[in-house]
Design a protein that fits this description.
Blueprint lengths: L1 E7 L3 H18 L3 E7 L6 H8 L5 E5 L6 H11 L4 E4 L11 H9 L5 E5 L12 H13 L14 E4 L15 H9 L3 E5 L14 H18 L1 H29 L5 H24 L8 H29 L7 H25 L7
Parallel strand pairs: 1-2, 1-4, 2-3, 5-7
Antiparallel strand pairs: 4-6, 5-6
Helix pairs in contact: 1-2, 7-8, 8-9, 9-10, 10-11
Amino acid sequence: MISIILPTYNEIDNINIIIPKIAETLDREGFKWEIIVVDDNSPDGTASVAEVFGEKYPVKVCVRKTDRGLSKAVIKGFELAEGDICLVMDADLSHPVEKIQDMVKPIISNECDATVGSRNIPGGGCAEWPFFRRIVSKLAGYMAKGVTSMSDPTSGFMAIRKGILDNIDIDPLGWKIVLEVTVKAQPRIKEIPILFSERKMGKSKLSLKTQIDYLHHLWRLYSFRYPEITQFLKFCMVGFSGIFIDTAVLVCLVELAFFDPRLAAIFAFTAAVSWNYFFNRVWTFKQGVDTKIAHTYITFLIICIIGLGIRIGIMHLLIRYAGMSEMPWYILASLLGVTAATIFNFLGSKHIVFSRWFHK
């Protein structure tokens, strides 16, 4: 059986059209099917209209009053689905209903585990889009290339074998449920060309917030796909912010408290290390919140001191034995030292400071 999932919000005009069209298409192909309308408590009465169709067609309606949003609605649809194949599509008629059979047949014949409707392969397109909308869509797609090989990563039209979703932690942010599922479930994918149509009735849900949510969602997916790299980037960002803390404390102690700069540097270093420790504990290495603060702080301080020694040692070797004592070579020597120290500090923090096994 095929379960068609339609997330809706204020789609009263479109729901009157799309349900009969889906029914006609699936009946013509001889499929056993159901439609699941997951409505976010639309004030226009979308859910009530969908319930009326339930008297004629196998239509389920679920009204959600809390924790709303398109992706969460689709997840609810997955939970309610009784079919072996779930197909997700927009209720605003932007996805071609006549392509449903092309979306599900490759899964039935075991060519793939999932199909995704693509606007970016031969036979696909979105002729009605203005130039700016095309640019935004292309840019959003390129940004996702690091986590998926799909030609249209921002597509919202997908069919998937329901069993693939078992034991997958689906936790999307925003609208891109297809990207979330394909990255985390890693199904065999076949892309199907579709002609995307701009909605004719109702109001578009695209907003600045949805675009910001997409960027946040991408960060989470990159973190899922490349946990070591994103963790290292977080570590570097925290370390970079620590430079400002170090400098601010140094200047304040020298200019306002009249400390000797060399003595002030010790307090500045301690302040920066404390800053870095806190944010690495709660952000970079979240598992570190289960470790003891006093123990991990001292360990982190020791790691940072060793890292400082590595930096100075590399600088010394390069300056003394490679002749890098003149401008700009000593800057390069310093940068190489900083790089080596950063890698050491990261590995030490990950595998020693914030490692549960080390503190058992």
